[in-house]
Structures are given as C-alpha cells and as structure tokens.
Write a structure and sequence with these properties.
It is built from 9 helices and 7 strands, in the order ααβαβαβαβαβαβααβ. By secondary structure, the protein is an alpha/beta fold. The site of S-adenosylmethionine has 22 residues, from helix 9.
Length: 238
Amino acid sequence: MTIQDSAPPPPPRRVYGRRQNRPLNASRSQAIEELLPRLSLEAECINNAPASLDPKTLFCTPMTRFSLEIGFGSGERMATLLPQNPDIGYLGAEPFINGMAAFLKSIYEEKPDNIRVLMDDAMLLVHALKDECLDDIYILNPDPWPKKRHHKRRIVSQANLDEFARTLKPGGKLIMTTDVPDLAEWMVTQTTLHPSFRWTAKNAQEWKNPPTGWVPTRYETKGAKGAESMVYLLFKRT
Ligand SMILES: C[S@@+](CC[C@H](N)C(=O)[O-])C[C@H]1O[C@@H](n2cnc3c(N)ncnc32)[C@H](O)[C@@H]1O
C-alpha cells in the first residue's frame, strides 16, 4: 500500500544523540555505499502507509520469524546471529552512521540476505510495520537520558510501548537491558504499567543474569564498569 492523500502523516523523526563522530575509513565507507542501498528500509518507511509494512515482503526467501533490534550500535549481536539463523528475518534500526558502518563492514564478506536496516529513528520503522508481525523486539542499553527534563526522550515510553504491543505477535517478547539503575527502574515501571505486557521474571536471578544463549553487545562487553548492575528484562506481549 502507498500513502494516500487521506493517510495520517508519518510520526515525527526523533533522534536526539549524535549521528556521526569521526569520519569513516575507506572500508567502512565502502560497506555503507555498497550494502546500505540494498538493505535499507528507508523507502519502505517513507512510501508505506502507517501500519502496513509486512516484513514477509522484504526478504527473497520465506522467513519463519521476525526480530527487530532498536539502536543496535555496531550490531555485534545481529552479526553473530545472522548466519546461525538463516530462516529468521532480522530488522535493525541505528541512526548513528559510525555504528551502521561498523555493522555493515562486519557482514560485508558474507553478505547475508536475512537482514534489513534503517539508518534513522527506529520508531519510523515500528510505525510503518503492520500489526502483530514481530516475534521479538530487542532494546539493548538504550541511551539513559538521566536528566529529568530529558526523560521524555527515552525510547521506553507509554506511546512507544503502544506501538511495540501493536507490532508484536501475541506471546511475542520485548527484551531490554541496561546497567543504569534509574533507567532499569523506569523500564520496569513503564512496561508493567502497560496493559499489554507481562514481566516473565520469577526471581531476581532471572533478571540479573543473561538468558541462555545470550550474545553480548559491545556496550555490555565494553561497559564492564556497569556489568554488575546489568539487568535483562524480558516481557511477554499478552
Ligand atoms: C548506548 S548505545 C547502545 C548500542 C548497542 N545496543 C549496544 O548495546 O552496544 C545506544 C544506541 O541507541 C541508538 N539510538 C538512539 N536513539 C535512537 C532511535 N531513536 N532509534 C534507534 N536507535 C537509537 C544510538 O545511536 C546508540 O547507538
């Protein structure tokens, strides 16, 4: 479906952090130039009416599951999982060009086809997706925005949780991590308040330790300073 005159406008773009720091080296520039046009979801996010994009239409082969990662940084987790799960369609959003370039360089040789990316605000992609099409959504170490006046910038908000609930299949999972205690509390409070999500943890061990088979992200590995306070929050879409 394409945008009709009567369709509501797309949501405003909300990217608050930096989108580039140092210039890209030659191999990262090459990865962006060659792979981004092939894998980018920008046109789909612009041309599709809200809530109409079916991830099944994005891949050349049939996929059994669809997984979204929001703010994937350099994408180590997806780069590890892509070749292991050729039947899972991965969607990733990361507005920071240095992170996107590092990720595309890491998959440059293998060029897996079960990944599509958006170099922009992840919510543009979430709003474009149709209802109940995702099996899981990962939000790993999002920017904490510690100042109270910036809390509205946090990616976990009631408005965004409405959209995560809409796009997740019933029983689908919302998985969030952080090593910032104030943000952890915020995530738990916001998500348990939302009527469509249920926290799966039965005891502290379940949120203090990574789930089985967990692939750590760069922030998680590098941020060893916060490793002790890292939490792994798994919510189920009811
Ligand atoms: C602290 S980093 C964590 C990166 C990665 N998830 C990890 O654990 O290594 C937060 C990431 O979220 C990205 N980000 C910020 N706002 C975003 C948005 N609106 N949509 C998607 N990603 C966003 C940032 O560019 C940054 O790469």
